[in-house]
Design goal:
- 2 copies of one chain form a homodimer.
- By secondary structure, chain A is of the alpha+beta class.
- Chain A contains 4 helices and 6 strands, in the order H-H-E-E-H-E-E-H-E-E.
- Chain A has a single domain, classed as Roll (Thiol Ester Dehydrase, Chain A).
- Chains A and B meet through helix 1, helix 2, helix 3 and strand 3 of A and helix 1, helix 2, helix 3 and strand 3 of B.
Chain lengths: 158, 158
């Protein structure tokens, strides 16, 4: 099943099939090196009345990037989970004037290992992530998000 | 020009023309009684992989509702402004299991009058709003947002 893939391109294709708004946003490329995840998107389908990036599109793609990182990280560990966002704080720092990228990395501390321990012990855990949206090298939006993962009953684990 | 209308249906039509993602979200109805604004949307185009409301769609529509309230409120006072969101805090409280509504009201205090004063004095002001998303009577998401309005150079004022 493509939804269980860890291949970034197949995962993006599955996202666009399952979440119609992500197809409308014309998400272009998703990359994941095991620590950092990036999603690129064009401006045109995500534009607002002022010709810059629509705040709702930016919020959507940033929210999705953190969700995708959490999902793929757990899947790399053999854990198939439902991941949801619990809360987020967004700062709109500069207008997006062109095609843009959402970028998010696993925390530098041991939070991601703690998440794995909690998943094994309780089947549930959380991860706090900072997502950034960049356009032409400029930081345009930051999202501090708290994501909650729940292990699926049919997940076998690593 | 339809973009200067205060008629809610014409304003929604203009939004969907200007912001393609709002057409993809199939926003249905926008109402505004001078204090409270509501926007309704169907679940189907805003669904996620779990069959519930996609967090990005909910964030988008909540963000848009506060922007629309600020824009229409100022327009009712004869002020044509560019309105942007500066930051927001979102809490995802319950899954959205059906068609849903975003709801936002002007603050009960004198913040909206203060905004008008600042617009007249400085051509710039801000408004803090709390947007709620409800589904089947249940509060599913809250957004605390800070919106900034900048008077357009060609705006004549009230």
């Amino acid at each position: 099943m493509s939804q269980l893939t860890t291949d970034p391109a197949a995962f993006l294709q599955w996202i666009k099939q399952q979440i119609p708004l992500t197809a409308a946003m014309q998400l272009q490329q998703l990359t994941f090196d095991g620590r950092q995840l990036r999603i690129t998107a064009p401006l045109a389908p995500n534009v607002n009345d002022k010709g810059t990036g629509f705040g709702g599109s930016l919020a959507s793609i940033a929210t999705l990037a953190g969700w995708a990182l959490t999902t793929l990280y757990l899947r790399h560990q053999g854990l198939e989970c439902d991941v949801v966002i619990a809360d987020s704080h967004l700062r709109y720092l500069a207008p997006v004037n062109g095609d843009f990228e959402a970028r998010v990395s696993l925390p530098l501390g041991d939070e991601s290992e703690q998440l794995l321990q909690r998943m094994q012990q309780r089947g549930r855990g959380r991860l706090e992530l900072q997502v950034e949206i960049l356009c032409n090298g400029e930081l345009c939006l930051s999202l501090d998000g708290r994501y909650v993962a729940m292990r699926r009953a049919d997940s076998q684990g690593a």
